């Protein structure tokens, strides 16, 4: 299934979908990497509202603080939301659980539709290139990785792999990673044109049929014993 932005001969237009008649009030929640991000799109906002908070350890209250900030700034309540979207992993196990619990809590409290997206898809959707390798941090020195191509939306071209840090430099595709994640200096880094929260928000705004069954954790734990550091 294709997700996200049609590039029409170029890689993923910078033009935001909420300027194309698809505006609704959408809350996006990300917590699978080193920081939490929350974004809000609404007809009352000229541009998306984005908050990013970092902590030494994943904390559910950071998501709630960020949600409070974007709703307060927009003068909206949780009950004003029309859709909640969240990243489902792979990434930090605790971060995944916190993010999904927060999304389900808002959805059930206010009877909102919810939808989950892969954190790797979200990283790919940040890019201004037509083909990338999206990565998320796994255990120390390892990365979850998946290649994507943008053809009438982002499509994964292979299953998720677990790569060692030193393997990233030999990958043929440019790498897109969460902001602030340190990559080896010889890794070819993809250009990006939006934050992860903005990418997730755009995926949610363009979503035609939210599916609550997608809001399940994506845990990738297959670290072969022969590949342990």
UniProtKB/TrEMBL annotation:
Xref: Gene3D superfamilies: 3.30.420.40
Keywords, comma-separated and alphabetical: Transferase
Example GO biological process: tRNA threonylcarbamoyladenosine modification
Pfam families assigned to the protein according to its UniProt record, in alphabetical order: TsaD
Domain Gcp-like span(s) in chain numbering: 62-144
Gene Ontology molecular functions: transferase activity
Keyword match Nucleotide-binding: no
Protein name as annotated: tRNA (Adenosine(37)-N6)-threonylcarbamoyltransferase complex dimerization subunit type 1 TsaB
Organism (species): Thermoanaerobaculum aquaticum
């Amino acid at each position: 299934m294709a997700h996200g932005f049609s590039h029409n001969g170029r890689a993923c237009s910078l033009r935001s979908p909420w300027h194309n008649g698809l505006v609704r009030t959408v809350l996006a929640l990300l917590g699978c990497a080193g920081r939490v991000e929350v974004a809000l799109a609404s007809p009352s906002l000229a541009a998306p509202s984005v908050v990013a908070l970092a902590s030494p350890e994943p904390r559910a209250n950071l998501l709630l603080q960020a949600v409070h900030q974007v709703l307060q700034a927009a003068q909206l309540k949780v009950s004003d939301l029309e859709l909640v979207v969240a990243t489902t992993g792979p990434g930090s196990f605790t971060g995944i659980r916190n993010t999904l619990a927060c999304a389900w809590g808002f959805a059930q409290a206010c009877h909102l539709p919810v939808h989950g997206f892969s954190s790797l898809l979200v990283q790919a959707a940040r890019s201004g290139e037509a083909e990338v390798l999206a990565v998320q941090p796994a255990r120390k020195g390892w990365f979850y990785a998946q290649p994507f191509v943008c053809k009438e939306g982002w499509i994964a071209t292979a299953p998720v792999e677990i790569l060692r840090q030193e393997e990233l430099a030999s990958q043929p595709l440019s790498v897109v990673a969460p902001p602030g994640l340190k990559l080896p200096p010889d890794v070819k880094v993809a250009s990006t044109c939006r934050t992860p929260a903005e990418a997730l928000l755009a995926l949610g705004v363009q979503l035609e049929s939210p599916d609550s069954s997608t809001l399940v954790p994506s845990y990738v734990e297959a670290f072969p014993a022969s590949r342990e550091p």
